[in-house]
């Protein structure tokens, strides 16, 4: 059974699940140096994604399109070979508590000159199915709660077991976009007008708040305004909750909230305001989750939690939920945001057929490296891991490209810039070449068995989804990966992993005694990962590029001669 999941809107992607195994997921932003959050605006992208894996649309048994904005259904305007067409899809949220797996059946999906029928499930359905089916709970057939907190919805709690899933309750009336909206009113991303949502601000604010300190008086202001405008029995709050299915009124009410906050907090430092707002939301999330868990404690599997939706990328909130003692285990997939929605669409059809069974998957299921003609000015030679480790040990960063790209928004060693963490200047250097703000952290990638020695808790974290503190005795040894508040967005990898980055870390550890490196994504500013070495060479900001056993070294301009020609990396 081949199921093709399609996400047409932002974070567009095509995924294929065959007989319960994820074959691939190709995110648009990771193709052709596309912009971050790229949508699919032409159905030829679906045809080409299948063709890259030797498939024709006729080889697919079922197509599934992820749902989107709308109470009863959504609509998509896309291009096909025959011109513009309109497709219908499922709504954003299921229509009733038991309706998570209710589909809209559509036709008119034009692929390769042929029409295909398709199904479309609510957008949140894909978050629930992708989170649970990739979890350890699915493998052991354990039920679990699933928290979905996306940009345009309140945090929604579901209960999932092998035979089905159902909605339990909304935890509190705050949409996920409120975090990014705070950045439109305070701090370095403040705007003069109200504007639209900015999908990139939330992650940057997580870094920025390390510059500030929590002030309980500020927290109290947010608590008071939350009751007055969102949660209480006031007229303002009632109007806000009445508009939950319409994005524009929600956006307006959220901006009203922050304009009222700004009047009360005009004398406060913006970094303190944002740090305090972050903690206000964190406390609200944990306390309301605790109340909900107690309310539903009779359900089997009440000690397991999956987290999905864009807010699942907030590592501090994930850690707070894990550390609250409410759950025995907390699972966040590496693609909790919409980058996993194509996978979720395919999983939804799989679940309808087989129940909530585990998906056989690998995080390295993205696009393969593209071959291509390299620009002039680069030397090429075979390079062992030991030699590459010695280059890194000499404090020179390396673009590291290997195998298929990782899924989700985080570079996990397949499309990374790696560097020694021993120099405090390295973080600033990497931020400069990436055109990032000075307060942005650089993540560590560390051998799993040594992580507890360096970080607290240092528990396995293969997808950079929880918060860790750097132990005091290591902060001066690896300063480039220590954030302003002492934290680190850690990625761990087992030394028995077959991935090439594990082999490199082992060789680097042998040379230096340090089992970690700096790890940041290999990409143009504002775009997805480099699709291959040629794109990295054209960027030209790092002089060493390692691509599946071949080292490319930039030739200094003083050494270039007129006969230096282009190379082809194969």
Automatic annotation (TrEMBL):
The keyword Secreted is assigned to this record: no
Gene3D superfamilies: 3.30.420.40, Carbamoyltransferase, C-terminal domain
Gene Ontology molecular function: any one: transferase activity
InterPro entries: ATPase_NBD, Carbam_trans_C, Carbam_trans_C_sf, Carbtransf_dom, NodU/CmcH_Carbamoyltrnsfr, Nodul_NodU
Enzyme Commission number, as recorded: 2.1.3.-
Keyword Transferase carried by entry: yes
Keywords of the record: Transferase
Domain Carbamoyltransferase C-terminal positions: 389-536
Top-level taxon of origin: Bacteria
Pfam families: Carbam_trans_C, Carbam_trans_N
Carbamoyltransferase domain location: 2-347
Family: Belongs to the NodU/CmcH family.
The protein's name: Nodulation protein NodU
UniProt source species: Mesorhizobium album
Gene field: nodU
């Amino acid at each position: 059974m081949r199921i093709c999941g399609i996400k047409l809107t932002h974070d567009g992607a095509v995924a294929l699940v065959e007989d319960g195994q994820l074959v691939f997921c190709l995110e648009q932003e990771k193709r052709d140096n596309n912009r971050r959050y790229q949508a699919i605006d032409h159905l030829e992208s679906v045809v080409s994604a299948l063709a890259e894996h030797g498939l024709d649309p006729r080889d697919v048994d079922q197509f599934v399109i992820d749902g989107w904005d709308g109470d009863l259904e959504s609509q998509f305007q896309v291009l096909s070979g025959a011109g513009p067409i309109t497709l219908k899809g499922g709504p954003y949220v299921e229509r009733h508590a038991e309706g998570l797996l209710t589909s809209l059946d559509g036709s008119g999906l034009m692929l390769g000159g042929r029409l295909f029928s398709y199904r479309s499930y609510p957008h949140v359905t894909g978050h629930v199915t992708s989170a649970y089916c990739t979890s350890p709970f699915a493998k052991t057939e354990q039920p679990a709660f699933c928290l979905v907190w996306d940009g345009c919805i309140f945090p929604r709690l579901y209960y999932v077991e092998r035979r089905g899933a159902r909605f339990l309750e909304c935890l509190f009336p705050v949409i996920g976009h409120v975090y990014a909206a705070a950045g439109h009113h305070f701090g370095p991303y403040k705007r003069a007008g109200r504007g639209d949502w900015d999908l990139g601000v939330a992650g940057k604010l997580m870094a920025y708040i390390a510059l500030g300190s929590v002030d309980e008086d500020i927290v109290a202001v947010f608590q008071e305004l939350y009751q007055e405008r969102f949660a209480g029995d006031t007229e303002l709050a009632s109007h806000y909750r009445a508009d939950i299915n319409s994005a524009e009124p929600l956006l307006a009410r959220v901006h009203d909230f922050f304009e009222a906050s700004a009047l009360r907090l005009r004398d406060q430092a913006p970094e303190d305001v944002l740090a305090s707002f972050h903690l206000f939301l964190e406390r609200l999330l944990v306390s309301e989750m605790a109340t909900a868990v107690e309310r539903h404690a009779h359900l089997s599997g009440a000690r397991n939690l999956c987290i999905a939706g864009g807010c699942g990328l907030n590592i501090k909130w994930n850690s707070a939920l894990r550390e609250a003692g409410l759950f025995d285990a907390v699972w966040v997939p590496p693609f909790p945001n919409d980058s996993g929605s194509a996978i979720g669409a395919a999983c939804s059809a799989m679940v309808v057929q087989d129940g909530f069974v585990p998906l056989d998957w690998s995080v390295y299921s993205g696009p393969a490296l593209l071959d291509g003609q390299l620009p002039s000015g680069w030397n090429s030679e075979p390079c062992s891991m030991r030699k590459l480790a010695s280059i890194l040990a000499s404090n020179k960063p390396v673009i590291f490209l290997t195998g298929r790209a990782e899924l989700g928004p985080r570079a996990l060693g397949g499309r990374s810039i790696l560097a020694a963490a021993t120099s405090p200047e390295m973080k600033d250097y990497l931020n400069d070449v990436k055109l990032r703000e000075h307060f942005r952290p650089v993540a560590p990638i560390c051998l799993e068995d040594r992580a507890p020695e360096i970080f607290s808790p240092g528990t396995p974290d293969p997808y950079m989804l929880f918060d860790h503190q750097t132990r005091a005795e290591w902060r001066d040894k690896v300063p480039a990966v220590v954030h302003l508040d002492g934290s680190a967005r850690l990625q761990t990898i087992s030394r028995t992993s077959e991935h090439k980055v594990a082999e490199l870390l082992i060789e680097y550890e042998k040379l230096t005694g340090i089992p970690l490196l700096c790890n940041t994504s290999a990409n143009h500013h504002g775009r997805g990962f480099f699709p291959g070495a040629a794109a990295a060479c054209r960027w030209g900001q790092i002089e060493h590029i390692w691509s599946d056993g071949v080292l490319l070294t930039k030739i200094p301009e003083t050494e270039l001669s007129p006969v230096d020609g282009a190379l082809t990396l194969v």
